[in-house]
Specification:
The chain has seven helices and ten strands. The protein is of the alpha/beta class. The N terminus is likely disordered. Bound molecules: adenosine-5'-diphosphate and magnesium ion.
Length: about 240
Amino acid sequence: MILKDKTGEGKLGDNKILEVKEICKSFHQPQSGILAVLNRVSFELGAGETTAVVGQSGSGKTTLLSLIAGLDNPDSGQVVLAGEDLCTMKENKLARYRAQKIGIVFQQFHLMPHLSARENISLPLEILKQDQIQRRTDAMLEKVGLGDRQHHLPGQLSGGECQRVAIARALIIKPALLLADEPTGNLDMETGEKVSKLLFDLVAGENKTLILVTHNLDLANRCNSILTLDRGRLV
Ligand code: ADP
Ligand code: MG
């Protein structure tokens, strides 16, 4: 369900990359019992489309992203990425599929602290045993402007630089889908602006599909559509 399509192009249909169908997710909480976080959430995304997910803190945005990433299972419903239902995939296949098709950028960067910027960026290529790792890592370092910081550890980098490493790591496998969970939430305004510009430039340059969770309405407005979560439902 696309609630706001500023392009008005009706791009969905033949080039559909993601279908989220009627997903429900609850958690058991010690004090309050069962908490229904997502209630029959459905929407579709076309390849190359960008969408923002907004909603109050606790409205289920991160939960939705982790279900789309196949990091957790919904109680019911389907997440179909490039024609395959992630929810019924066996764990081995899912892990590989996730590594090949989905890039994720988190608010807290989640870099490997003992690896350099360069090693963090090339890690997905190493894991997937890809070709031309040196060359592709060089090119990606160049794209995110970290050539002169490549041998630094995350602890020796600024927040903005760490997030650029995380963006590079997420994009180096050329994922079909990029998920970003409040990617500028941990950065000051000026740095956040630079990092989000980089993110949008890279996404547009490679015609990537993006789902961006953000509190920042300026950022949300840069996406083709905006999904608003309220008490477990898209409104
Ligand atoms: P948002 O990202 O929109 O702030 P979340 O998706 O992180 O919201 O969380 C939605 C609700 O689900 C919150 O009330 C949170 O406490 C609860 N929640 C999230 N993950 C778990 C979990 N693993 N166990 C129990 N409750 C959870
Ligand atoms: Mg969250």
